[in-house]
Amino acid sequence: MSTTDHIPLTTLSHGGGCGCKIAPAVLQEALRGLTQGVFQPDLLVGNAGSDDAAVYRLNDQQALVATTDFFMPIVDDPFDFGRIAATNALSDVYAMGATPILALAILGMPLDKLPVSTIRRIMAGGAAICAEAGINVAGGHSIDSPEPIYGLAALGLVHPDRVKRNDRARDGDVLILGKPLGIGVLSSALKKGLLEAAGYQAMLSTTTRLNRVGIPLGELPGVHAMTDVTGFGLLGHLLEICRGSGLAARVEFSRLPILDAARPLAEQGRGPGAMERNWESYGAAVRLADHLPDWAWRIGTDPQTSGGLLVACDEQAAATVLALFRSHGFEAAATIGRLEAGTPTVDLG
To answer: Coil, helix or strand for 195?
Structure first.
């Protein structure tokens, strides 16, 4: 076996996972003025908002959900990298309440640095997750690139009346988060050689758990809005719900589920640079209570790779939503706050 088989993937890229995403403020500026296009009455969700995927109505019973997601390595093991990237990409389909039907691979690899056997392992990891989701990787596209990149273009189907957008939340809705926070903190520690085996296993367990619970959640009338928490962190994606729905949010910091291995690292001020970029982009819309620890904003802006679903639901539906999360293995799912009438901001208290 060539020694290149043992190259840690994270040493080949300047960033990793959803921490690679362009900062929200920069992305907003880049997209300014580009939302205009051909009028298509069957395009139910497009780029005019900030939702997880595009949705196109095929007929009265079916709408096509389309998304793409890819990034650079968040872990060194090629099979694990493929699994995490695929889980993350499919999450956008589940966040719309849809069922995946197929995926296409997106592959960019430094062929002068990685052997074909490593590239094959990355793709095998992605294919394994797709098989778990009940779909095939039906094709894709590949290029020779300076840094390793892998992800999926994913397609799904949903009833047009059951699409769960991120801009349909209502005054009084309860906020429920499905997965614990801290993935960015752990991935940063891994890259610096500070992450212990237990922390790695915890990170791997949450980032490879498919958000399939989004399908039954999409069938609940009491679920008004849904998104998945990824590169912009909990606060960033919650602000997208607030801005799209014209509401304010109140979040209780003590209720936030946080990975055990991530908490002490966050308390030490550790984490990826994307935390600061996120805060610079939207921190002005967040009010931090005086009693909070000085690392509270960091866990709120921590970029989550393959993070949990964030649900805004009627208070009467909250118990059912939590029960669904638990039945799908999301033991850390928790009620973290609520939405109310007001300027689109987040109070973290």
So the answer is: coil
Task: Check if 18 is active-site.
Answer: yes
- Quick: pLDDT tens for 28-44: 676 666 666 677 899 99
Q: Which residues pair with 106 in a beta bridge?
A: 141, 151
What CA–CA distance (Å, rounded) separates 107 from 330?
30
| C-beta of residue 172 within 8 angstroms of C-beta of residue 338 | yes
Residue pointed to by tokens 């992305």: 27
Q: Is residue 266 within 8 Å of 302, Cβ to Cβ?
A: yes
Q: Does residue 192 contact residue 22 with C-beta atoms inside 8 Å?
A: no
Structure tokens at 295: 């690392």
- Widest pairwise Cα distance in the chain: 61
Residue 69: both structure tokens together: 């997601």
Each residue of 90-140: pLDDT tens digit? 999 999 999 999 999 999 999 999 999 999 999 999 999 999 999 999 999
When computed from its CA atoms, the radius of gyration of the chain, rounded to whole angstroms, is 19
> What does the block give as tokens for 101?
């039907």
Taking Cα atoms as reference points, which of 236, 292, 299, 308 lies closest to residue 262?
Answer: 299
179: Cβ contacts below 8 Å, ≥ 6 apart: 206, 209, 229, 257, 304, 307, 308, 309, 330, 332, 333
Q: What is the dihedral of CA 101, 130, 91, 54, to 10 degrees?
A: -30
Nearest of 183, 185, 224, 235 to residue 205 by alpha carbon: 183
Neighbouring C-beta atoms of residue 40, cutoff 10 Å: 10
What gap in Å lies between CA 227 and CA 182, rounded to an integer? 18
CA dist 113 and 147 (Å) reads 9
